[in-house]
Design a protein that fits this description.
- The protein is mainly beta.
- The strands form 3 sheets. The protein has an 8-stranded mixed β-sheet with strand order 1-13-12-11-10-17-8-3. Strands 2, 5, 6, 9, 14, 15, 16 and 18 form an 8-stranded antiparallel β-sheet that branches.
- The chain starts with a strand and ends with a strand.
């Protein structure tokens, strides 16, 4: 279920007591810190058009204090469109916490950037049973809209039961915004610039409903086309499309 809200309807949420436990400020130019990030490689999901490359600076690099994930139509090694998907899988994982990403999304029809999480047990149980937390998703054919979503075995878009919300946000491709999720044993709350847009409460101990008492890892990726991002086609004028991430910060709640 996707619920649409206007920005003015939100009140600022009170700040809980959090402590920083992991972050990347993207201070060192070059490739992303290999102690924190790995890469997906290949054609991965959703019928998307991009080939994800591994440790290729043309598709993912740190410059001027930002992580740049760039989609290019460059026919690299016979792959028409290339991009990158960085992940903490096997390097860092968390159960509960506050996850915060300050980013500027790329505009243009066909772009589909995201900051999201998957359960570390995905190789054993598959998707969506592993659980998915979409801190931020954006599709370029809706230029003034950002999304937060949750997927589980019981609640997911493939069976029409997905839980999510969308927020009107003026030109998110023109400036940086802070996208965050606060995940506790009782619920998840999603925010844009500190304004709450979605609450997903734990309804049951059934893992098909709430698989979120187990660790998840982070993903930052820029997809092109695919089942959602490509619904209105892909504009060739988008290239090179730049998804810019200022920082990623993870907090735990103080006891």
């Amino acid at each position: 279920m996707v619920v649409l809200f206007a920005l003015a309807a939100f009140a600022f949420a009170p700040a809980p007591d959090w402590k920083l436990v992991w972050s990347d400020e993207f201070d060192m130019p070059g490739l992303a810190d290999s102690k924190k990030w790995g890469y997906e490689e290949g054609y991965i999901r959703n019928g998307e058009k991009q080939f994800y490359t591994k440790a290729r600076k043309e598709n993912a690099r740190v410059e001027s204090g930002k992580l740049i994930i760039e989609a290019r139509k460059d026919n690299f090694q016979g792959k028409e469109i290339t991009s990158a998907s960085l992940t903490t899988q096997g390097k860092a994982e968390w159960t509960y916490g506050k996850f915060e990403v300050r980013a500027k999304v790329p505009g243009g029809r066909g772009t589909w950037p995201a900051a999201w999480m998957l359960g570390t047990n995905i190789s054993k149980v598959g998707w969506p049973k592993c659980g998915e937390i979409d801190i931020m998703e954006y599709v370029g054919y809706e230029p003034n809209m950002v999304h937060a979503n949750v997927h589980t075995q019981a609640y997911n878009h493939s069976i029409g039961t997905g839980k999510g919300a969308a927020m009107d946000l003026d030109r998110p491709f023109a400036s940086y915004h802070v996208y965050s999720c606060e995940w506790t044993p009782a619920q998840m709350e999603f925010f844009v610039d500190g304004r709450r847009i979605l609450t997903f409460k734990k309804e049951s101990d059934n893992v098909d409903v709430w698989p979120f008492d187990a660790p998840q890892y982070l993903i930052l990726n820029l997809a092109i086309g695919g089942g959602w991002g490509g619904q209105k086609g892909i504009d060739d004028a988008i290239y090179p499309a730049r998804y810019e991430i200022d920082y990623v910060r993870v907090y735990s709640q103080k006891s």
